Description:
By secondary structure, the protein is an alpha/beta fold. It has a domain at 8-170 and 214-242 and 277-294: NAD(P)-binding Rossmann-like Domain (Rossmann fold), CATH 3.40.50. The protein is built from 10 helices and 12 strands. Strands 2-1-3-4-5-10 form a 6-stranded parallel β-sheet, sandwiched between helices. The protein has a two-stranded parallel sheet with strand order 6-9. The protein has a two-stranded parallel ribbon with strand order 7-12. Helix 5 links the parallel strand 4 (104-108) and strand 5 (161-166). The radius of gyration is 19 Å and the shape is globular. 44% of the residues are buried. The mean pLDDT is 95.
Amino acid sequence: xxxxxxxxxxxxxxxxxxxxxxxxxxxxxxxxxxxxxxxxxxxxxxxxxxxxxxxxxxxxxxxxxxxxxxxxxxxxxxxxxxxxxxxxxxxxxxxxxxxxxxxxxxxxxxxxxxxxxxxxxxxxxxxxxxxxxxxxxxxxxxxxxxxxxxxxxxxxxxxxxxxxxxxxxxxxxxxxxxxxxxxxxxxxxxxxxxxxxxxxxxxxxxxxxxxxxxxxxxxxxxxxxxxxxxxxxxxxxxxxxxxxxxxxxxxxxxxxxxxxxxxxxxxxxxxxxxxxxxxxxxxxxxxxxxxxxxxxxxxxxxxxxxxxxxxxxxxxxxx
Length: 319
């Protein structure tokens, strides 16, 4: 509680899927002055808007969550804008923070920053041992530059910034747009449509053999706030659940939870992406005591329940 007392905190992306949870978690921890910049008021890609944000909010601490994100398809269609938008937002926010004497900057990276052939589970020291998987490399590299900037600014200016590497997040309030959603909401959407239409088969991308790790969004928010309070080092830190699952097994799990008895047709002409993704979580547990609390089964059940209730009562929220 005492850490946050009197501090002005800016949470970029604080109105989004993860951001709303982080703001709520900050309030639980005693933060009373949390400012959430909205895109209609502050376009963080524009330098002048970042200057104005610092003038208006006068932050002591910035948690940078805002990002342009999407699944494999969205990354393949928008590599240039995914690179530029994410790079400019992070770089400018950190630079202005340094200029204005910010007490701490919390940067969120991505698991997409890891090399394509990283040994599993991914350890933070392997971040620079190769090039990222090609389908989302521009996004991953743009976010990875925040680590370079963070460590360079600490070395030259003694600027306090930390860098966290979350896995794919999911949970109630996720993005269910079929053009840009990640794997869990995309599966839920397809399965629900099939159940409602009586369809006996649905198509999923790839072979189903790649593995992924997923973290429930409320657990991610807890990790970010814990790290903001307790961690002040230069080394990157993984944020995940510690559970690896194949896309094929994940599809079976989601189908069982939703009551779908039909078949999956795997479209092998579509890319699989990186073959394995799972994180070593020992550093986060050691440095700030984080361990995920929500099982994948429980998290998916909660997500499905939210989606079904919201789709029926307020369809524009999940369109």
